[in-house]
Input
Amino acid sequence: MRRLVTADKMQGRRVGVVMTMGALHEGHLSLVRRSVEECDRTAVTIFVNPTQFGPQEDYAKYPRQLHEDLSLLADLGVNYVFTPQPSEMYPSGHSTRISPPRVAEVLEGQCRPGHFEGVTTIVLKLLQVIPADIAYFGQKDYQQYLVIRTMVEELDVASDIRVCPIVRDADGLALSSRNQYLATEARQRALAISESLSLAEQMVRDGQRRASTIAAHMRQHLVDADIERIDYIALVDPKSLQEVR
Ligand code: AMP
Output
């Protein structure tokens, strides 16, 4: 893989990479289209990365549909798809891990201990295998994007990191491979999440400036929709992810 990409680069071709865990949907495909547009060669990785899942998380049941994924990518004109086995990326005894930057400590980092360590480790490894000019990430995982951008800057990785907008279903739910887990009723309830974000946006537009008031309204909206457990609602600075008042 590295030999192929290096040869492309030596011939002056611009290489883009999109890293995914597969079960591809329009969200992923929007990143792929952007890479195909902006680059001469596009590589996609499909790898359900075990080190970013907590012990109680859904690694075993995470959706896997390589066959469908490959045919979607072929239709978009992707040049390379890298689909390693876990034992290739992490041979037995593999122990090196990246310690993620400070921006990984809050929000998802707090709810999912070890998650960003797994993410930064696999992203750096994949950028070693595929030393792309540009790596594309989705704004759906905004904290992940910040974590990776910071790591790449601070560890002098040569790739540019680009972020692309969230793709949502017509009713507002952000596309996610994990939406496959949601039965009709749960999917309906999940809409309250994007609604609460729109509610916050509207409150700011209408002049509300107190974060605690906005958060309280969001919480109430989720509770009214029978969302029982809320990990966090936070209004934060878009660079540091520190809470604002
Ligand atoms: P995943 O397969 O969930 O690891 O996602 C791979 C990449 O696709 C990440 O950069 C995600 O942020 C991005 N992505 C996933 N879902 C969406 C979406 N609905 N809109 C935009 N980007 C997305």
The longest strand covers residues 15-20. The two ends are 48 Å apart (CA to CA).
